[in-house]
Amino acid sequence: MQVTRLQVVARGLTIRCPNCGGKTLFKPGTLFQVNAACPDCGLVIERDEGSFLGAVALNFGTTVVVFLVPVLLLYLGGVFSGMTASIVAGVGAFGFPILFYRSSRSWWLMNYYFFLPQHLPANLGAQRVGQDQNI
User: Fold this and answer.
1) Which pTM does this prediction carry?
2) Where would I find the H helices in 26-81?
3) b/e map of 97-117 (b: 16 or more CB within 10 Å)?
4) Residues spanned by the domain of 37
5) How many separate domains does the chain show?
6) If pLDDT is split at 50, 70 and 90, which confidence band does 83 have?
């Protein structure tokens, strides 16, 4: 069964395995522990050391754009005082990345497999069948 780019996006946004669609990216009962591989289909989630750095950058960038820039604009617009803006920004700078961690890991996988869907095990089988028929 071939996985389409639309399926990869839908699965990434709902924190599911990009290959099989199972809720298996994270170990059951934990918030932050990522499975090394999907227990359902065997997709390697932790590809190699450092592969998570893109998710960290995505989490940081999203925190700045979605949370810190609006706080700055509210401060500059006179809605927040300096002290209020500092407190809200400080709490948000620590809280938002923690809340967004699972999504950022899933979105990073989604981005990878959106651009390289042929790397998914479900799509490798379809490519091999096509190659075997051309022989």
Assistant:
1) 0.80
2) 53-62, 69-76
3) beebbbbbbbbbbbbbbeeeb
4) 5-124
5) 1
6) very high
